[in-house]
Write a structure and sequence with these properties.
two-stranded antiparallel ribbon; 4 strands; 35% helix; alpha+beta
Length: 115
């Protein structure tokens, strides 16, 4: 059994999960994982033989879609640890490395909209 808090074990579980869902015979399971976070979490735990996944951890499974530009109506920000100083400014970052903070989601990943 692997444990969620062990990075190497978690990476191996991810590898097994992706490999499993990549098989043609697991197409229905792949689709179900994309539409049901709880199901995805359950399948990840079973396929990767993982224990100790925190209850509050949500699993979101998407298909890779190459769309440019990578902006849309749905933005995710990962704020730096408030107990640590911001990384030193560089010519590129100008106080905050935006690429480390700003993540965005594309329309196909944000769900279906009715316009």
């Amino acid at each position: 059994m692997r444990h969620w808090n062990e990075p190497r074990e978690r990476r191996e579980a991810v590898r097994l999960f992706v490999k499993h869902l990549h098989k043609k015979e697991n197409h229905r399971e792949r689709e179900d994982c994309k539409h049901d976070k709880d199901y995805a979490k359950e399948r990840f735990a079973a396929i990767g033989e993982v224990e100790g996944i925190p209850d509050e951890t949500e699993f979101c499974v998407y298909e890779f879609v190459e769309i440019e530009p990578r902006d849309s109506e749905y933005a995710i920000f990962l704020l730096p640890d408030p107990t640590k100083p911001l990384a030193p400014a560089t010519e590129r970052t100008r106080e905050v490395d935006v690429t480390a903070v700003y993540r965005c989601t594309w329309d196909p990943w944000a769900g279906h909209r009715e316009d």
